[in-house]
Design goal:
The structure is a single chain. The chain is rod-shaped and about 110 Å long. Helix 4 runs parallel beside helix 6 and helix 6 runs parallel beside helix 9. It has eleven helices and five strands. It has a five-stranded mixed sheet. The two termini are about 15 Å apart. With about 375 residues, the protein is of the alpha+beta class.
Length: about 375
């Protein structure tokens, strides 16, 4: 990805240098014509130099530079027409006006202002052709300039249309993502509340036999509550953000390992293995985030439905262009006291999210007698 960005960057830089090179060549031609046609023609290369300056500053002063060049070109055309000696349209001036018109149609907001400025550019080009009627060639100049403006306006309008479509697609994706995050907010709260309830029940059981062990359990409950508030704040921040908001949970493999270590400290031991060929650069961010959510759901279900499980096995493997996360728990049936809390829609939501990335999710008994959750993601 980094190499492709550098290639695009250098292509854009070389294209811009080529544009300035062509305009410099056209400016030399304008200077040659000015030297041969008389002193009044020297106004034309001055307009050309102003056009190159407006192009250099177009990213900071797009509209102002365009209007300034339009005004200078119009005044030059009227001056040459008043003198009556005629003259030639400036090649650099015309090229700069056309390039700036293309940029105006692409970037100026709102669209009606871009269209108005473009039409104003056409009027100035027609004034250029009429005011510099060299040897009665004004009609030919008018046709050539109108054809050039029409082509430029067509290309600029098409690029603007594609840009508007892309912006709308980005907004649609963001709205869909926020709706999905809103649906997951319930599951997120349920995960943390389940952990708090289980730890509270465990603390009550421990208090009957070992009262001195209650304080660590209370600390764990407080920590779980703090984690719940932090996670919910992150989720709400993503939902409220108007622009792109980075998600901090689950963006690296270290977050996955940290989750399993925290789970091992509070419940059954988890053996988490990451296979060869997998690192933070090989997994797309959306896959990494979904892996985090699937692992969280699987471990929470172990704590909720099989609290007396002996141990949990989790592994992340890559086979060619397929990444698989497998979570299995052994040696325990469901805890009836916790099962009365009821099930949720966590796995259903995870299945929808995995399938949205082109993968699939399976949850059920394995041939070895364990309960397993398997999520597969394609990388291409």
């Amino acid at each position: 990805m980094g190499d492709s960005k550098r290639v695009v960057y250098w292509i854009r830089r070389l294209s811009e240098l080529a544009m300035y090179g062509w305009l410099g060549l056209l400016l030399l031609i304008d200077l040659v014509f000015a030297a041969g046609l008389g002193p009044q023609q020297w106004l034309v290369p001055i307009c050309g130099a102003a056009g190159i300056t407006a192009l250099v500053l177009r990213r900071r002063f797009r509209t102002q530079g365009y209007l300034a060049l339009l005004g200078l070109s119009f005044v030059t055309s009227m001056t040459l027409a008043a003198i009556g000696d005629g003259g030639l349209p400036g090649m650099t001036e015309t090229g700069s006006l056309l390039i700036l018109t293309l940029g105006v149609l692409r970037h100026v907001e709102p669209v009606r202002n871009a269209a108005l400025l473009s039409c104003l550019g056409l009027a100035v080009l027609m004034a250029e052709a009429g005011g510099r009627e060299y040897h009665n060639a004004g009609l030919m100049f008018s046709f050539l300039l109108f054809a050039s403006w029409s082509l430029t306006a067509g290309v600029g309008g098409y690029l603007r249309f594609q840009q508007e479509r892309r912006i709308e697609a980005v907004h649609s994706v963001r709205r869909a993502e926020r709706l999905e995050l809103a649906r997951e907010l319930h599951d997120l709260v349920a995960h943390h509340i389940t952990g708090i309830v289980v730890q509270a029940q465990a603390a009550r059981t421990v208090a009957e036999s070992s009262p001195q062990a209650v304080l660590p359990a209370l600390d764990a409950i407080a920590s779980a509550g703090s984690d719940a508030l932090t996670s919910m704040r992150r989720m709400v921040t993503v939902l409220r953000a108007e622009d792109e908001a980075g998600r901090t949970p689950g963006v690296t493999l270290a977050d996955l390992r940290m989750m399993t270590e925290r789970f091992s400290a509070e419940g059954p031991k988890v053996a988490f293995e990451i296979g060869q060929g997998i690192d933070d650069r090989t997994l797309p961010p959306e896959v990494m985030t979904t892996l985090h959510r699937v692992l969280l759901e699987a471990l929470t279900n172990v704590r909720k439905h099989a609290a007396r499980t002996a141990w949990v096995e989790a592994e992340l493997r890559r086979l060619e262009q397929l990444v698989t996360l497998r979570v299995r728990n052994f040696g325990s049936g469901p805890d009836s006291r916790v099962s009365r809390l009821g099930g949720g829609f966590g796995l259903v939501g995870m299945a929808e999210r995995v399938e949205a990335l082109g993968g699939r999710l399976y949850a059920g008994p394995s041939p070895e007698g364990a309960w397993e959750v398997v999520a597969e993601f394609p990388l291409s």
